[in-house]
Amino acid sequence: MQKPTLAGFAASKTLYEASNGSSTSRGAYADEKPIQLSDSERAVIHRNAVRGLVRVLLAQALMAVFAGLVSWAVAGVAAGASALLGAGAYFVPNALFAMRLLLGYSGLKPVAAQGFLAGELIKLASATLLLLAVALLAKAWLVWPALLFGLVCVLKGYVLLLMFQRLP
What we know:
This protein has 6 helices and no strands. By secondary structure, the chain is mostly helical.
């Protein structure tokens, strides 16, 4: 089987445009009608989106508890607290952002693309600021490997969903 090349892509794109009569400025799907969803289809999509958000938050919370318990068992109370602080530095902003998205799903005010991106930016900035605050305020007893372990566990909380095939 021959590997696709950039030249082959350009040639096939040109052939498509010639046969379709469209140009790249109009987009490949400019002539197609938008998808129309029924109320029941919208309800199913809404229910699945809400379930997915809740599942991700639950998986992240479980991973935070796991990181805290493992760190506490391996290196003591300070390590357990450090792991929980690291996990919380990402989990709290993520949970607040998810709550905002859930409020949008409930119909109060849907989140547009710009609002979603702004929310992601605020979430990442607040997580960074929380990590900075933890580093400054708890430097006397902070266990950095445990803090990073807690942070990584929460960041990879979706792995639990993959393991149990519950990813939304």
